[in-house]
Amino acid sequence: MMCLPTSPPALRTCLGLGLFVLLCLGIGQALEKKVVKSKVGEKVSLPCCHEIPSSESLRKYRVYWQKNITDVVLAYSEGNMLPQHERYQNRTEMDPRNLTLWISPVEILDNGSYQCVVQRNSVLVCSESVILFVTADFSKPNITAEVSADSCKLTEMVITCSSHGGFPKPRISGALNNMSMEWNASWVSESSFSPYNVTGKMVLNVTKDVTITCSVEYSGFATSTSLLLTKTNNCVVPPVSPPYNVITASIIIVITFILAVTLAARYLPRHVCSHCCKRQDSVEEGVKEHTKAPKRSKVTAETSSV
Q1: Residue 297: what pLDDT?
Q2: pLDDT on residue 272
């Protein structure tokens, strides 16, 4: 809908609306903060809200770079550097024209909001805030699998994924054969501005060979590792031990057989020997009788002749 300035009151109304819109836009831009991202160990630049013309020098200005409004990161007054917080000594510098702040090397504690305040002849020229997001790379995740139970149907495994030394607090995710899965995650850190160690655990019932992936995500970055999980059991049924009563009966049978063999070996030869001896005696007696018979005949003959 357009305002048509057909009369002075209408014109004033349109001008008032226009000024209100411009004011809202100006406030929105003022509230919008710039965001800069950097990694630990890198060199980062934070932009300021003013650039000194080539016809002027830093000596006509006061420039304050401060963090959280309390810590002086770097400041100049009439061209001279002012005392700064000890954490930033020998790690900061500023461009004398566009007043960009350089920090190197970046540390995790540098994470936070910074403000650039510029004055000329004690008059405020501009003030602008910049948010620095610092990240530290996590180590490549390490995946381990420990078999907790095994059977012909499945292998139960306890899977552990761990990564350390990163910042900020990460998110750990996973996939099983490209299907998403959730980890039971835990984090360890000395403080909110210290490196994090993350560990994820889960219990899986593996019925066939599968591939598991663990990913650690932090501030737009990610690192991941995959591991092939192999079902360990080949369903080889171990031999079943016979029942106790079967074992006992088998032992009794074996002992009985051994006793029988022992007795047979001890008494059977005597019986055979005695049987052989009797048979031999009878044979010898028969031979003797047969030998004596002719003599008897001879005697009888002689007697008859007499």
Answers
A1: 42
A2: 53
Sheet holding 112-120, edge to edge: 34-39, 123-135, 112-120, 61-67, 71-77, 80-81
3-class state of residue 16 by DSSP? helix
Going from the C-alpha of 130 to that of each of 48, 116, 121, 124, 127, the distances in angstroms are 8, 8, 24, 18, 10
**CA angle (304, 305, 306) in 5-degree steps:** 90
User: Quick one: which of 212, 213, 206 has its CA closest to 231?
Assistant: 206
Structure tokens belonging to residue 306:
């007499």
Task: Look at residue 110 and give its three-state secondary structure.
Answer: helix
Q: Which two tokens stand for residue 123?
A: 């008059």
Beta strand pairing status for 44-46 and 61-67? unpaired
Distance of alpha carbon 61 from alpha carbon 52, whole angstroms = 9
The overall pTM is greater than 0.85: no
| Beta carbons of 84 and 75 less than 8 angstroms apart | yes
Amino acid at 24: C
